[in-house]
Amino acid sequence: MSGRIAFQGEPGAYGHQACLEARPDLDPLPCPTFDDAIEAVRKGDAELGMIAVENSTYGRVADVHQLLPESGLNIVDEAFVRIHINVLGVPGARLNQLRRVRSMDILLGQARDFLREHGLETLKWSDNAAAAREIAALGDPSEGALASDLAARVYGLDVLARHIEDHDRNTTRFVVMAREPDYKRRGKGPMITSFVFRVRNIPAALYKAMGGFATNGVNMTKLESYMVGGHFTATQFYAEIEGHPDDRNVQLAFEELDYFTEQLRLLGVYPAAPRRYEIVRD
């Protein structure tokens, strides 16, 4: 029996697509929420979790960066999935019959131009694949859904308009999470190290903490802040760098960072996905 990989959403979701593309050897396990997907890995119901973290058009996925540090899991890989958005309808329906489409807010926001041009009403839905399933159940040619090609196949729907996303490089980045870290693995290309930290309450602490990466030639590819515990003064930072903690320049940078922080925790060390450095046009 093969293992399982958990994702947020129903069959046909983009997380499902990510699982099929990045881990075809594992059985996808649909979960209602990101919390549920993470919990499935924690409990051992799945070996891995496929968690969406950001989209090239819409930005970061809300709340995920707050979930990751508290998950108890480790990032062991990343996957970039080209997000093609399609208008799905019941078999035999035509685009000019549509009055309204439903989908998650994040997907509606990635196809604003098309929706405005065709004068389509929108209805926010909990999940893209769930929207497709609802359309199949309704059987109404005036109702449509925005979802993937995979969702069309899963729920027996027609694709009424294909690839309607506003930007031709629309891509979502996922991280693959596991119960145990793997710090020994080295990819053929750059390694990525993800971590969270909180700076000490001293003047210019963040500026000084970041200086160590610049002086040691470590490329920081991401730095995001968010409040923790509902306090404006308690700010946590999520960061990603190119390099491995065993690299000497990374060690030196972390030594300087540690001096100016009151909390520092590794979230994962993993090979950079090739698509990180590609211009995706497929």
TrEMBL record:
<feature type="domain" description="ACT">
    <location>
        <begin position="194"/>
        <end position="271"/>
    </location>
</feature>
<keyword id="KW-0456">Lyase</keyword>
<dbReference type="InterPro" id="IPR001086">
    <property type="entry name" value="Preph_deHydtase"/>
</dbReference>
<feature type="domain" description="Prephenate dehydratase">
    <location>
        <begin position="4"/>
        <end position="179"/>
    </location>
</feature>
<dbReference type="GO" id="GO:0005737">
    <property type="term" value="C:cytoplasm"/>
</dbReference>
<dbReference type="InterPro" id="IPR045865">
    <property type="entry name" value="ACT-like_dom_sf"/>
</dbReference>
<comment type="pathway">
    <text>Amino-acid biosynthesis; L-phenylalanine biosynthesis; phenylpyruvate from prephenate: step 1/1.</text>
</comment>
<dbReference type="GO" id="GO:0009094">
    <property type="term" value="P:L-phenylalanine biosynthetic process"/>
</dbReference>
<keyword id="KW-0057">Aromatic amino acid biosynthesis</keyword>
<dbReference type="Pfam" id="PF00800">
    <property type="entry name" value="PDT"/>
</dbReference>
<feature type="site" description="Essential for prephenate dehydratase activity">
    <location>
        <position position="172"/>
    </location>
</feature>
<dbReference type="InterPro" id="IPR018528">
    <property type="entry name" value="Preph_deHydtase_CS"/>
</dbReference>
<keyword id="KW-0584">Phenylalanine biosynthesis</keyword>
<dbReference type="InterPro" id="IPR002912">
    <property type="entry name" value="ACT_dom"/>
</dbReference>
<dbReference type="InterPro" id="IPR008242">
    <property type="entry name" value="Chor_mutase/pphenate_deHydtase"/>
</dbReference>
<dbReference type="GO" id="GO:0004664">
    <property type="term" value="F:prephenate dehydratase activity"/>
</dbReference>
<protein>
    <recommendedName>
        <fullName>prephenate dehydratase</fullName>
        <ecNumber>4.2.1.51</ecNumber>
    </recommendedName>
</protein>
<keyword id="KW-0028">Amino-acid biosynthesis</keyword>
